[in-house]
Design brief:
Elements lengths: L1 H4 L4 H11 L2 H5 L1 H4 L6 H9 L7 H20 L1 H8 L6 H10 L4 H18 L2 H10 L5 H4 L11 H8 L4 H45 L1
Helix pairs in contact: 2-8, 6-7, 9-13, 12-13
Family: Belongs to the KdgT transporter family.
Pfam families: KdgT
InterPro entries: 2keto-3dGluconate_permease (IPR004684)
Length: about 210
């Protein structure tokens, strides 16, 4: 559950944010990428003594963000150049996401894997509520509900750190893989449904106020 719920798909978020949000929402991918990897899973497990914290992974995510912040603030031309290329990256996120999916993993994982995927897809509700409280676009909050493909490797990493968990690593890998596929399918459906419903409510309010 830690591997499946603490590792969200940044590529899927960027794709959905570009369709249902603005450039600020897409730009939030830089910070969201902190969750796009096994770091937080291993931090949680490391706190319990089950795994070591990969400090290099943390640096690998933080350093590009810091460099980008520095370049964007000291050079307006660089900010304009890099900012205009955000949407160009979306196809490079989306194509590998779809090509790497193996629907047979759902069958191998069974009920637990499907349940984990559904839970992961609905974790975006928390972000939705928070964004709504802060008067921001809440729809993109729902786009955070997913499991990243690289989470599939997390059970193996944990088992390497703690051999006592090696016996469950295979089942956990299948379940996390199923969660990745399920959440990648369900999450966009949730986002699209809530967006259409919110647009319908706005249209009804406009008609009511006009009347």
């Amino acid at each position: 559950m830690l591997a499946g719920l603490l590792n969200a798909n940044g590529g899927l978020y960027a794709s959905l944010a570009s369709s249902y949000g603005d450039e600020t929402d897409v730009g939030a991918y830089a910070l969201f990428s902190l969750k796009d990897g096994p770091f937080f899973t291993l931090v949680a497990l490391g706190a319990s003594g089950l795994a070591s914290i990969p400090f290099q992974t943390f640096l690998g995510v933080i350093i590009p963000i810091v460099i980008g912040m520095i370049l964007g603030n000291i050079d307006p031309d660089m900010r304009k150049f890099l900012g205009s290329s955000k949407l160009l990256l979306i196809p490079f996120f989306s194509f590998p996401l779809g090509a790497g999916m193996d629907l047979s993993t759902i069958i191998k994982a069974g009920g637990p894997g499907i349940l984990l995927g559904l839970i992961a897809a609905f974790t975006g509700i928390g972000a939705y509520v928070l964004l709504k409280l802060f008067k921001e676009n809440p729809i993109v909050g729902l786009a955070t509900g997913s499991t990243a493909g690289n989470a599939v490797a997390t059970p193996v990493v944990v088992a390497a750190a703690d051999p006592a968990l090696a016996s469950v690593a295979h089942a956990a890998t299948a379940q996390v893989a199923a969660a990745c596929v399920i959440s990648a399918i369900v999450c966009p459906i949730i986002v699209s449904y809530v967006f259409k419903r919110s647009q319908k409510k706005k249209a009804n309010k406009s008609l009511a106020s006009a009347a």
